[in-house]
Amino acid sequence: MSLNTIAINQQMNRFDGHASVWLFGYGSLIFKADFPFIERRPAFIRGWTRRFWQGSHDHRGTETAPGRVVTLAPLEGAVCHGMAYLVTPEEFAHLDHREKNGYLRLATDMHFEDGTTAEGIVYIATHDNAAYLGPASELDIARQIASARGPSGPNSEYLLRLAQALRELGKPDEHVFELERQLIALGSNGMSAPA
Ligand code: SIN
After folding, report:
1. Where are the alpha helices (DSSP H) in 1-103?
2. Is 151 helix (H, G, I), strand (E, B) or coil?
3. Is the pLDDT at 195 greater than 50, yes or no?
């Protein structure tokens, strides 16, 4: 089931009046920056772990055959690495549309490699959203990813591109890499998932 979060996100006024805002990306926002940005820097946030627990009905699956994409689950002591983008507030109209299937804008501190920090926005799909799928075995998640595709392409491409982007960042993620291993063992190359 899909849930359109655009109207809720438009009410977020935490950064009103700011000329630019930091956005932290941990999923497709790492490998697909389809928006203009002023600056981009590797960053991490604390207390969250990346999980393929969110259903995708609009990008990497359909209403009847949802795919799986990442969200963040709270976990004490965890660190989630990703990419931070400095954007103008106008970009949030496009971002809210892109992340509309259950993701909410949350304010977060993000940490950069030079030891500095900034407050900005991260899109998180919490466990109470209508598209949330939650935990499953890595084999079941990989099977679902292998068979799903949506308007943005095969679900397998999302997983493989995320794994590759994390390797390029030098930030291994065991959950993502294990799913990548399972997906490849299932014979999926990210380009030929069935419709
Ligand atoms: C993100 O990348 O930060 C959010 C999840 C996604 O769009 O894949």
Report:
1. 6-10, 28-31, 91-98
2. coil
3. no
- C-alpha 147 to ligand 1 mean position (Å): 20
Interval between CA 186 and ligand 1 midpoint (Å): 25
107 within 8 A of 13, measured Cβ to Cβ: no
- Between CA 165 and CA 142 the distance in angstroms is 18
Domains and CATH numbers, the chain: 6-186 (3.10.490.10)
Q: How many CB atoms neighbour CB 172 within 10 A? A: 11
H or E, element range at 191:
none
> Measured from the CA of 98, which atom of ligand 1 is nearest?
7
pLDDT in tens, 147-187: 999 999 999 999 999 999 999 999 999 999 999 999 999 99
| Residue 180 appears among annotated catalytic residues | no
Contact 133, 66 (CB under 8 A): yes
